[in-house]
Specification:
Blueprint (H helix, E strand, L loop, with lengths): L2 H15 L8 H4 L5 H17 L3 E4 L8 H4 L6 H4 L3 H6 L4 E4 L5 E4 L4 H8 L3 H6 L7 H7 L10 H4 L18 H13 L16 E2 L27 E4 L2 E6 L2 E7 L2 E13 L2 E11 L2 E5 L5 E2 L6 E2 L3 E5 L18 E4 L6 E8 L4 E2 L4 E3 L7 E8 L6 E8 L8 E4 L4 H11 L11 H7 L9 E6 L2 E14 L3 E15 L3 E4 L6 E2 L1
Parallel strand pairs: 1-2, 10-13
Antiparallel strand pairs: 2-3, 4-10, 5-6, 6-13, 7-8, 7-12, 8-9, 9-10, 9-11, 14-17, 15-18, 16-17, 18-19, 19-20, 21-22, 22-23, 22-25, 23-24
Length: 498
Amino acid sequence: MKNGYKKLQFCGQQAARDRLDYFWVDTCCIDKSSSAELQEAINSMFRWYKNAKVCYVFLSDHAPGKLSHSRSLGKCRWVTRGWTLQELIAPLVVKFYAKDWSLLGDKKNDAEYIADATGINLHILKSGDLSDASVAQRMSWAAKRNCTRLEDVAYSLMGLFGINMPMLYGEGSKAFRRLQEEIIKSSNDLTIFAWNPAGVVKYCSILAPCPAVFSESVDIEKFNPAFSHPEFTVNNKGLRMTTSLWRYPVEQTGAKTLRYFLRLGGDPSKPTGVFLIMVGPGYFFRDGHMPFSTASKSIAAGMRTTEIYIATYPLTTTKSIDLTSFSQISFVVPSNQLDWKPTVAIPEELWDDSNSLFFGAVNHIIQVLKLQLRIPNTSVKISVVVLYDRLVNPGASLIFNPEDWKRYGRLTRYLFRPRNANERFRMSDLLWEYPEIKDLTDHFEVIVSKERYTIKSIMQLGLVEDISTTMRVYSLAFEVSKEQSESLVKGLLLRTRK
């Protein structure tokens, strides 16, 4: 007698002992030659299991005994199969049988042991209620499971997320992408993006390649209902979202740099999230070299709420890309000998903190950068405001001292007052209200601690390492000199080469 028939025979006999009128076995009750019947069965299977009085699980590689005593469930093939996850979660009553058909235990009485062996939350096992389980947690339950066909990795999870979608065998890994897109249509749970990349590709998709990357996401919870969830959708440009990113300090190669942090779930004051890389105005990739992590609100700088896009397809390169292939660049502030710190950038969505550059504006607007310079080997700090109109005067910047309230107090208050997120500055409008702008040049003088300094801005056109390797862009640097033209700092364009 074949093993398949033995299983069928046992199921019928056990159903009779449990006084059930009908029993159903997936291996013989689905006509797999009919694509319509197969699709209906797969889309309905989770519901069928949930409505079942009892589910019998035959563990052909488990010895007789007590389930909780043997501690062998985690080694069984049944636990590693993708399709069996819904068999464990959906029905309230699940009975386990050993290879000799003897009873091992059941889900209710052995829930704690089953939870340890599978990583599934104890409450979920006892109640079958998935409403409190985040998308990341559900994905983590499937992280170490596999299917014979690649498409079934996605299809076996449809019931777990209440998703119905057509099955297209032959689409390969695209099936899991489609599953995520369908989940996004019906849920605003951001933890769907809380997965760990392999760390090979730097510019990652925000969508996961497979459930395996969620293996460490079992404890990631959704934001509580009091927290405002952003709206997000997927279109042909990427993942569209209206949200407020965090600028977050990250230590890399011994130095701290500001990175963009997208909050996904957990405690709103110390959320879990992922890091993004800006490649254009409001356009990002997931940073494939950074795992998801927890950030502290106390050391983060929140950005204005604005619309952003995040790529849903990765770049295959493992190196830094030429940013000019994605967007025009107004100017870069390269690393140099001056200790400088940007404090305000307007428009905020055009400024890239990670690379210290302004992306090009598509119309005639002024880009404003407020920064603080510290003169080397001194404690002298000088504030500088840079005004730049890329389309009208490319390569020419205007600067002034924002602490010179007598001459520029009105202009400084106007530029850096609380503003509407969509407000932009045009030179024609500013000149009408603030004629003192006509007197601005590429340099100004300031007296600090009885010393007179001249601050001069310099724009140089060239290639910039790690930013533009094919197209020349403008780099902004500063030359600082004391009275009588005693040069303090020169040759500041260290990262620029002609």
